[in-house]
TrEMBL record:
The chain crosses the membrane at residues 12-36, 42-64, 136-158, 164-184, 205-223, 243-261, 273-291, 297-322, 334-354, 360-380. The keyword Ribosomal protein does not apply. It is found in: Cell membrane. It comes from the Bacteria. Keywords: Cell membrane, Membrane, Transmembrane, Transmembrane helix, Transport. Coiled coil: none annotated. It comes from Nonomuraea jabiensis. Residues 11-384 form the Major facilitator superfamily (MFS) profile domain. PROSITE patterns: MFS. The keyword Transmembrane applies. This is Putative MFS family arabinose efflux permease.
Amino acid sequence: MRSQIGGLPRAFWALWGGTVVNRLGTMVMPFTGVYLTQARGLSVATAGLVMGVFGVGSLLSQLVAGVLTDRIGRRATLSGGMLATAATMLALGYSSSLPAIVASMLVLGLVMDVYRPASSALVADLVSPEERPRAYGLLFWGINLGYAVGVTAGGWLASLGFLWLFWIDALSGVVFAVLVWRAVPETRPAARESAGGFGVVLRDRVMIGFTLVALGNALVYSQTFTMLPVAMTKVVGLSPGQFGLAMALNGILIVIVQPLVSGWLGRRDPARMFALGLSVMALGFAMTAFVETTLGLVVTIVVWTAGEVITAGIPGAVVATLAPPELRGRYSGLFGFSWSLAAVLAPLVGGRLLEIGSQALWFTIGGVGVLSAAGMLLLGPAIRRR
């Protein structure tokens, strides 16, 4: 196990620990729909619109955070974003009128993921290129570990009162902010005069190509929390309990397997490994078209989780390779934007396809994964030259 955790700087582990604490406290977002409809009495349609406002905020969040990461620093952006998130969480928890709820959700969308570009840039600054895939993989593992525990605890606490969720979520953000501010040094390099806004990033054709590949990856994975629950419960007829039990396997496999293979995966060519992982994920989701039982769903989850484990540490390492040190925030912000965009597009596209039929949805999603894998192979030579 020492080979999996050794060789990484102390500051990285402070960032990792803060990330785990933050994810342990991530209790509000998984239960937002339940909170808005049950605690605040909104209709399902109104709650959907409110959550859509959050999505609009998150689209802008990554781009703004990328610029802030490069201009005011990684540590200040991450800590400031966490403190702003904590304050907004409490504002949302105590909001009772619809205008106040909408305003709080918009601001929450803007600030909640501000830490992501800063965190990615910090890892790139702190960790050697050879160790980056392993470091990003361990960060991914910590996020899943914390989230699994946080969601489980959140479900229990929600029965005691939703306000508990908001306070714990806010407190975890404050702990993350303080830990980073005290234990992680500022690593932002001096900006060059030529370093401008996102125009520099948008002129990097390799990064644009990789962002499109990342968008395809995100569209595929986003089905796990958008259309997959609907398809399994409404079309296949599984109960929520059966679906939840099957999906728990995803987190369990990641927590067990990810630390064991991250070092080995980090020594392989990132473009080929990412293409392999995308292909395995595509296969797993295409197989979902034939699911009729809980066991069938379990088999598909095992397959696409294997693909998720393969891809986990690679995107961050690729972005760090492509980005000049003084622009790592902007590059990470553009990468994060692809995931925010996918979170908006996935339910819109997936819902239309599911109306046509289950096979239309899952074969299309599988096709998107295969096309993304092919795109990654095409980008491979250019990434290796960098």
